[in-house]
Design a protein that fits this description.
This protein is of the alpha/beta class. About 45% of the residues lie in helices and about 15% in strands. The protein has 2 domains: about 240 residues, Aldehyde Dehydrogenase, Chain A, domain 1; about 200 residues, Aldehyde Dehydrogenase, Chain A, domain 2, CATH 3.40.309.
Length: about 500
Amino acid sequence: MSLAENLNSPNVNVASASPEGMQMLLARQKAAFLRDGPPSAEKRIEALDRCIGLLVDHKQEIMDALASDFGHRSKDQTLLTDVFGSIEPLKYAKANVRKWMRIEKRKPAFPLGFMGARAEVHYVPKGVVGVISPWNFPINLTFSPLAGILASGNRVMIKPSEYTPASGELMARMFRTAFDETEIAVITGGPAIGEAFSRLAFDHLIFTGSTAIGHHVMRAAAEHLVPVTLELGGKSPVILSNTASMSDATTKIMAGKMMNAGQICLAPDYVFVPEARLEGFVSGAQAAVKAMYPTLKDNPDYTSVINQRHYDRLNAYIEDARQKGAKIIEINPAKENFSQQPHYKIPPTLVLDPSDDMKIMQDEIFGPLLPVKTYRQIDEVIGYINDHPRPLGLYYFGQDSTEQDRVLSRTTAGGVTINDVIMHVSMEDLPFGGVGPSGMGAYHGIDGFRTFSHAKAVYSQAKLDVVGKMMRPPYGDAFRKMLGGRVKR
């Protein structure tokens, strides 16, 4: 069977597609989009429903696949983050898509509106959207963007991470049961396939992953001037104020740090603690970990690091910090021996008094390690944050509204959560995205709908074309008088 015949077969496994095959598949999706035109609200809702059904019907397989990919991953966490966390955005889009699709009326320039002119914005689908999803939440960070992509009426090609092959193959099978490949297609494969995928002439491309890879994706997309949404990461700081409840703050910070073993783009990356409260923070963090995870090594709730390379990288951060003078506090409630284990689990580890020459303060950690810096005045913290690349998230704990407002107004981050960590990403009516090195563009809710739509300006001229006639040559006194009255301060 030829490649073209393969791509037209309803049973084709796109996982085996070559760069040429992906080009052909993209051409087929674009042709289908042009042939069928923008889908109705009913068809968009039906597509969202099919995605919800896939998640509900395959929830056990999703839990099993992620456990296989990670060596060990908490199945309850998968149910929360990758199943429930994916269904909610789809349901939100389903409930709101009719409203989002409405033509938006704008005000025509004076005096054209009085003469019957109309100005409108029509939100129309872009066409075919490419999705490059990461390994840390492979299901969620595929389906969550789909909420906005499908609500906008687009077709989709998906490239999952090669680090989670079981999840990628599962998604390929799942989508084949519910969607024709001209609607949604999944392409699996290694870095070469990913690089070729990023060079395709999509109508929009969304990439979720590291800042380093984001540079390459943006360069590749530039070949065809493909608009991109980059959901990257960075070092998201936590500010613990003098007015914060220590037990509440440490519980929430450590819960966020230990979820998925810290392998979250929004995980707290380092904490600022008032000098006088450092000891209280350490004891609070220890107590919080013990309460949530009395054991770690064989605890089904505690996820392992994804692979050997990342396990070695994280341990190298600890050793580098130790050699450069940081105090290392391993939080290991049951005093378990991690030198021999079937997976790649690392106990949560505090790194006190880190310096900027340590690797742990230069790279996004993406693991259960937490540097803790002390400060005396809040302006020290603001200055430090502003001297470093803008983060994806920023977290403030405290009850001082004046100080909180100062932090919010004097720093820039993709998003902020007050008196908790990470939670702003779960608010579907808030835009989610980074700024500068932590990302470009935003999605979720109406912001996702608009990101994946083209806002088409439509102007309908007034029947009474008085102004138009005045604007056309030959110019006379009436024209000069009109402009003279308008060209002023």
